[in-house]
Amino acid sequence: MGHSKEKTGEKVDIYRDTWVRFLGYANEVGESFRALVPVSLVWGSYAVSTMYVTADAVDKGRKAAVAHGDNPGRTTRVAVAVVDTFVWQALASVIIPGFTINRLCAGSLYLLGRTTKWPLPVRKWTTTAIGLSAIPFIITPIDRSVDFLLDSSVRKLYNEGEKHK
């Protein structure tokens, strides 16, 4: 992740280019394990993801503040950076993938119960494996969909052509 940017001289974004990015996926892991663990652990995984989203939004606000110095409109630019990042991350890292994995796992557990005679623990572990294995496949389509959604809606309101990096 970060090594290729370090070698080319690009600045590494800790929230996008390092292992820290995986904290945004904590709730998908939690949802995958929902059938096996207490629900408090699932909600804890959402807390981790939400902290990641908030930290990234604050970071992008700080970067926007530095980039715009004392120029007029600085406060607006900072607010836009924070809100855009927070909304994008909340949708792409927490809400949509959490819902997707939750429904995939619930559906899998239901279907396994209706179509197999496997014992409940085997069905629950199978459901967890299905949820975990789906995570890499849902990330890019969800990211692209959220880009399209924001580009087609709120980003038009604040005239932002660029995404906050």
TrEMBL record:
Pfam families from the UniProt entry: MTP18 (PF10558)
InterPro entries membership: Mitochondrial_18_kDa_protein
GO biological process: mitochondrial fission
A GO CC annotation given for this chain: mitochondrion
Record-stated family: Belongs to the MTFP1 family.
Protein name: Mitochondrial fission process protein 1
